[in-house]
Structures are given as C-alpha cells and as structure tokens.
C-alpha cells in the first residue's frame, strides 16, 4: 500500500486521483482534509488526519504501508531567508524523525519530492544535471538538500530504498496561490483581485515549468521502477521560460491585458533554472508528454478572467 503524506495539497490531490482511477490501494495523510477530498476518496482510501511533526501519529500512519510518497513542506522560495530557523524546525527536524520511523517500520520505498529549482543555486551549468554542484542561496533549497542528505544516509547505513525527485515548477488545474508559491496561480489571483501582477526585476528570470499530469506520471514510475533505486532524478520540462513569456501566453489565451508592477530583484532568486531530464528518461523511462501551451490552456480553462472590483 502507498501512503501519500501531504495528500491534501496540489500534487497530493492529483496523485490520489490517479491512484484511485487505477484502483490502487492508498492511504492519504494530511493535517486536514477538505470536504471535497473526503467526498472523492473517503469511500476508497483510508484518510488519516495527522500532524507530520507528531512522531507518535506518524508511527500509526505508517502502519500497513510499504511505500511512502512524501510531499509535506511548509516553506517556499518566496519566503526568501526571513524564517530560516523556523524552516529548520518545521521542515528538517520532523523529517529526520519521520525517516527514522520509516526505517523502523520497514518501509520498502521512500519517494521524496525535492526542489529542482532551488537546491542547485546559481550556476552556469545549464541545463542543470543531477551531478551539478549544489549551492542553494535560499533556506527553502538548503532545507530540501539537508533532507536529501539524511535520506541518502539512511540508504547507505540502514538500507532504505529511496528515490529523490528534484522537481521543477509544477503547474496545472487545482493549483491555488498560497505560501508565495506558484507563478501562474499568483498571476491569476492578483488579476482576479484587480491588482497588478508583481514582476520581480525586468521579467527576464527563466524557470522550468512542468505540467502536473507529467509530474504524477513520474511519481508513479518512481514508486515501482527498480532502476530508480537510490537515485536522484530531475523532473521538469527540460525547457526554460521567462516571467514575461508566461504573462504573454496567459494574456494570449485569455484575450486580456494583465497589469504589471515591477519590483526589485530578490537576493535569493537565480537568473535561470532549467533542468536536464536525461536521467529521468534512462532510469524511469519518463519524459514529459504535455506541451507547455496545452498545459496552460487546460489550467486556464477553469479560470474566470473577470476581476473582482478592488475596494
């Protein structure tokens, strides 16, 4: 049985939907489940409301699981380095405790979603390979890298079978702007509020964006592919697009003009993040199937372009 930790988040919801559609048994773990999640999965999956930072609750949640997909995170790159101590307290210490519990419980495979956009830091090595240097300049990236190292340690010392997926910027239907994370929902949310979109710098910063269905494909493969054992694998589109390009594409699809407000560059952002996805092809047999434009159109299909009146 597969356990999805952080099941009520953007990626977790899509993974739960996919597993249910395939008739796979899974347990969904989250601090809280919304009524629509309970309605969709309460009859087919075991739903466990538990705090990831509660060791005893996690012991109980792991009962009967042989595979863990760990999606829990309370930080984001947008938080910059303003809460580094809290970041360690909330995203490193509980994860270390959870890993120890997984080892004791005999978890067969541990799939961790890391950050392909922040663990590497500034680099001229583009597209970025998994063996590129890791010099994160944000607390978010550094905590992800620390967790990666603990996972690798347990792999070497305790025989934990793991797969680390360094994920680019996922997007798709059902992604809501929160925690200063997600460019596309941030653009749509600001526009709906009648506010200008804040563009950092001149809009030339380039990022790798990957559609959610392709992300779920990669997670499914990581759960069961023997070749991926103890692998670190980039998951992205292999392409980079600027903020200005994203804004232009949204305007073109929706047929409207989005107001911009240009703000200062943040010290914790890199100029470009574009992942090399060759290893995903060789170890997982995975490549993204969804062209960016197609994914964006599907994302915008549920969006109401009429802005609310600002007061």
Automatic annotation (TrEMBL):
PANTHER family: BIFUNCTIONAL POLYMYXIN RESISTANCE PROTEIN ARNA, UDP-D-APIOSE_UDP-D-XYLOSE SYNTHASE 2. It holds the Pfam family Epimerase. It comes from Aquibium pacificus. This is NAD-dependent epimerase/dehydratase family protein. Residues 4-236 form the NAD-dependent epimerase/dehydratase domain. InterPro entries: Epimerase_deHydtase (IPR001509), Lipid_A_modif_metabolic_enz (IPR050177), NAD(P)-bd_dom_sf (IPR036291). Gene3D superfamilies: NAD(P)-binding Rossmann-like Domain (3.40.50.720). It comes from the Bacteria.
């Amino acid at each position: 049985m597969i356990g999805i930790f952080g099941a009520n988040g953007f990626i977790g919801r899509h993974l739960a939907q996919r597993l249910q559609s395939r008739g796979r048994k899974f347990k969904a773990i989250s601090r809280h489940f919304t009524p629509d999640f309970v309605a969709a999965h309460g009859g087919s999956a075991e739903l466990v409301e538990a705090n990831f930072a509660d060791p005893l609750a996690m012991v109980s949640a792991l009962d009967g699981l042989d595979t863990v997909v760990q999606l829990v995170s309370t930080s984001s790159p947008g938080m910059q380095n303003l809460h580094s101590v809290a970041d360690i307290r909330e995203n490193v210490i509980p994860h270390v405790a959870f890993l120890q519990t997984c080892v004791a419980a005999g978890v067969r495979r541990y799939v961790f979603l890391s950050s392909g956009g922040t663990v590497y830091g500034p680099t001229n090595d583009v597209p970025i390979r998994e063996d590129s240097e890791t010099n994160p300049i944000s607390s978010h990236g550094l905590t992800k890298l620390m967790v990666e190292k603990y996972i690798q340690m347990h792999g070497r010392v305790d025989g934990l079978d793991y797969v680390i997926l360094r994920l680019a910027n996922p997007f798709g239907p059902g992604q809501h702007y929160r925690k200063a994370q997600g460019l596309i929902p941030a653009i749509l949310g600001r526009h709906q509020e009648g506010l200008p979109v804040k563009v950092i710098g001149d809009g030339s910063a380039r990022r790798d964006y990957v559609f959610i269905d392709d992300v779920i494909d990669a997670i499914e493969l990581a759960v069961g592919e023997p070749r991926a054992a103890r692998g670190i694998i980039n998951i992205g589109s292999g392409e980079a697009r600027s903020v200005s390009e994203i804004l232009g594409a949204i305007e073109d699809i929706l047929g409207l003009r989005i107001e911009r407000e240009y703000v200062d560059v943040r010290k914790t952002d890199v100029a470009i993040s574009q992942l090399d996805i060759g290893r995903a092809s060789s170890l997982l047999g995975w490549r993204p199937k969804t062209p960016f434009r197609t994914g964006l159109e599907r994302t915008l299909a549920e969006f109401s372009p009429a802005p609310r009146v600002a007061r």
